[in-house]
Design brief:
The structure holds two protein chains of two kinds.
Chain A (H helix, E strand, L loop, with lengths): L1 H25 L3 H27 L2 H32 L49
Helix pairs in contact in A: 1-2, 2-3
Chain B lengths: L2 H26 L3 H26 L4 H27 L3
Helix pairs in contact in B: 1-2, 2-3
The chains are: A mainly alpha, B mainly alpha.
Chain lengths: ~140, ~90
């Protein structure tokens, strides 16, 4: 009985990790790839760790697996936010079919300060005009 | 088909295929942010592979390695993004 449960959970986890990998290939934009990394891969790895905890059926192993799941759940959004912020300052272009950019004209290029209104000194802002190609090299 | 065979012949190849796809993005990635994201995702996939491997071999000690890998993945992502932001900041 427990082996069937382990098989189901690990299959779901592997499929979610595979979907995250396909999303890494198929997504057209850095920011969309960041969203793939945080959601699908976290869920997949969590399911596989739960299946490991069920297999060993042991308090110490279950605690260890739960600690890893908690750590991944806590750190994935933080690291995604950090790398998204860094890539926004780096000037990584949005996808050309992206609908809107909420941060347009609100981040200061020099001071890295986020303003709540659109700035009146547009020469200090970061340029995020959308790219013409699907994948443009950013130095 | 026992659980060990199922994990060895179906789950692990699927995860290996996922690692190959992510590694393609790691090599190709247009910007350096893509490379950092794919490195993070490679290590996260490695945690899953370690979990499946520990089930196959019946050794729960491997999960300690997974914990260390999770720590290193978070630390490396934070350090890379910190230094990228520092590098682009004009004086």
């Amino acid at each position: 009985m427990s082996s069937i449960l382990i098989a189901i959970l690990s299959t779901a986890g592997a499929l979610f990790v595979l979907l995250a990998a396909i999303g890494m290939i198929r997504m057209p934009d850095t920011y969309l790839r960041i969203s793939v990394t945080t959601k699908a891969a976290t869920l997949g790895v969590g399911l596989m760790l739960v299946s490991a905890a069920i297999f060993f059926n042991d308090l110490s192993t279950t605690t260890r697996a739960l600690v890893i799941i908690l750590f991944v759940l806590l750190t994935a959004p933080v690291s995604a936010h950090l790398i998204g912020r860094a890539s926004y300052f780096m000037g990584v272009k949005l996808w050309k079919k992206s609908v809107m950019d909420d941060l347009q004209g609100k981040y200061q290029k020099k001071s890295h300060v986020l303003k709540s209104e659109t700035d009146d000194t547009p020469e200090d802002n970061i340029n995020h005009s959308k790219s013409d190609d699907d994948e443009e090299l950013v130095k | 088909m026992s659980l060990t065979d199922y994990l060895s012949y179906i789950i692990l190849p699927v995860l290996a295929l996922a690692v190959c796809l992510i590694f393609y993005r790691f090599l190709k990635g247009p910007s350096i942010a893509d490379k950092i994201i794919s490195l993070d995702l490679l290590i996260t996939t490695g945690i899953g592979i370690i979990a499946v491997y520990s089930i196959i071999h019946g050794r729960s000690t491997f999960l300690d390695t997974a914990m260390i890998l999770a720590l290193i993945a978070f630390l490396s992502t934070v350090a890379f993004s910190y230094y990228i932001e520092k590098r682009n900041r004009k004086k």
